[in-house]
Amino acid sequence: MRAGFVLVAVLIAAAGTALHAHGVDEQDKAFIAGASGTHLIPYMYLGAKHMVTGYDHLLFLAGVIFFLYRMRDIGIYVSLFALGHSVTLLAGVLFDIRANPYLIDAIIGLSVVYKALDNLDAFQTMLGWRPNPKLAVLVFGFFHGFGLATKLQELALGQDGLIANLVAFNVGVELGQFMALAVILIVMNLWRLSGDFRRHALVANAALMIAGFMLTGYQLAGYFTQGTSA
User: Fold this and answer.
1) pLDDT of residue 182
2) Distance CA 209, CA 90 (A)
3) In which band, very low, low, confident or very high, does the pLDDT at 230 lie, cut at 50, 70 and 90?
4) DSSP letters along the chain, please?
5) pLDDT digits (tens, 9 = 90+) for 12-45
């Protein structure tokens, strides 16, 4: 199977799995609830685990690097994304800045839709202008980090060692992002070398856009259901 079809299949499969992104399993919840003091390595592990299983983040990253060929450009965009989600992850938890997690995750879904449309040159074609891609990645990075913060806010984080543990968690997120990005780049480069990259780019980005709409719709349904039952 060619690399292009593999990536398209992964994107479509991730569309379904991504509906449960940002979740924290019961074992991790139990650890966080019972932990007291500074636990750097466990929190780094939790951060890395959250990133490599956070399919909304990975879908967005895949879209961001889709048409980037130079490592310098990839480094700039990934750094902007990392800066954005680091700021709001730390600030959201430390300063207890709260928002409805369903709405934040819906915006994260829309970030995937945005990147797919941008890759398809839809903004320039339909509107005659293109949003600044670097600024957009930074802004959506803020929302991705806030999504992480809303999940941590739901847990019983101890104040003893909180800052150190949060920094460790964020470092873990960056390590997880690096590992996931390496895999995505390997698959992407194999696809580009196969010669059918341009031919199937439209299908891949259509799948990316569908995944983003699925994420957004799922989260909005949760928001309105929550509001109705409240």
Assistant:
1) 93
2) 29
3) very low
4) --HHHHHHHHHHHHHHHGGGTT---HHHHHHHHH--S--HHHHHHHHHHHHHT-HHHHHHHHHHHTT--SHHHHHHHHHHHHHHHHHHHHHHHHTT----HHHHHHHHHHHHHHHHHHHTTHHHHHHS----HHHHHHHHHHHHHHHHHHHHHTS---STTHHHHHHHHHHHHHHHHHHHHHHHHHHHHHHHHHT-HHHHHHHHHHHHHHHHHHHHHHHHHHHHHHHHH-
5) 555 555 555 455 666 777 777 667 788 899 899 9
